[in-house]
Specification:
alpha/beta; 2,3-Dihydroxybiphenyl 1,2-Dioxygenase, domain 1; four-stranded mixed β-sheet; 2 domains; 8 strands; 2 helices; globular
Amino acid sequence: MLTKLSVVTILVRDQDEALQFYTEKLGLEKIDDIQFGDEGRWLTVCAPEQKDVQIFLQKADSFGSDLMDTVGRAPSWAFNTDNCQETFETLKARGVKFLSDPKQQPWGIQAVFEDLYGNKFSIVEEPGAAE
């Protein structure tokens, strides 16, 4: 049986550029950076408090595939936060492009941002998180 989610893939045009965005702007941590000859690079990041789920920053034309036309069209992912407004302000000050300001939703307070390539992410403060 499946036991847990361990890796999600985000397609990017440039891995170094993506690494800089995800670590310096979003505050994620680099976990793996392994080069496989000329074929590809395994580059992962994760949230500091959740190292068991990694984001694989896959260059869209690596490992023998050309997926450049799908960059920025990945499913959206959500990061939890203790304070959506504060996180929104911090990330916005770092230059992260937000598509929506923090807004009360039935599942909590949510704001939506995109990475360098148009991949969409949410930050969500679940009810009672700031208490």
